[in-house]
Design brief:
Length: 164
């Protein structure tokens, strides 16, 4: 078995035309929110952290090495593309998801009401049953940039098991 940890943090700014934030997407699900991530790709912090967790478990290069922000091909890119590549590498290495545990930390938007959609989308992208996917929403209790609503932070742990 292999264990990986993924982490991502994005600054949140008002969405264009009022600022430089992109539309708020989390786990491949669009949210109606006035602030969004400042990022080269679509800024989906959850998919970025899941991608890095899988790549880390495999001992592969991280998301920034595989999909650098200096590459114009990644500008505004759907982060599902990055995760699909990590899953393909996982399968080529003959591993599958044992389970995955995700913690999303932001003040707004609230994750709970859309949790089932996010879990379903992750299960679909990972090619695993949703029972193996956990997503939790937390806040920073108004402490620091995350707590002030100026950033989103995500932690992910993944267990990969050899394919049966």
């Amino acid at each position: 078995m292999r264990i990986g940890h993924g982490y991502d943090l994005h600054r949140l700014e008002p969405v264009a035309p009022h600022g430089t934030g992109r539309p708020f997407v989390l786990g491949g699900i669009k949210f109606d929110h006035g602030a969004g991530p400042v990022a080269h790709s679509d800024g989906d912090a959850l998919l970025h952290a899941v991608t890095d967790a899988i790549l880390g478990a495999l001992g592969e290069p991280d998301i920034g090495q595989l999909f650098p922000d200096s590459d114009q091909a990644n500008e505004g890119s759907d982060s599902a593309r990055f995760l699909v590549e990590a899953v393909a590498r996982m399968r080529r290495a003959r591993f599958e998801i044992g389970n995955i545990d995700c913690t999303v930390i932001c003040e707004q938007p609230k994750i709970g009401p859309r949790r089932a959609e996010i879990v379903h989308r992750l299960g679909s992208l990972l090619g695993c049953p949703t029972e193996l996917v956990n997503v939790k929403g937390k806040t920073h209790e108004r402490v620091d940039a995350v707590g002030e609503g100026r950033a989103i932070e995500v932690h992910v742990s993944v267990l990969l098991r050899p394919m049966t």
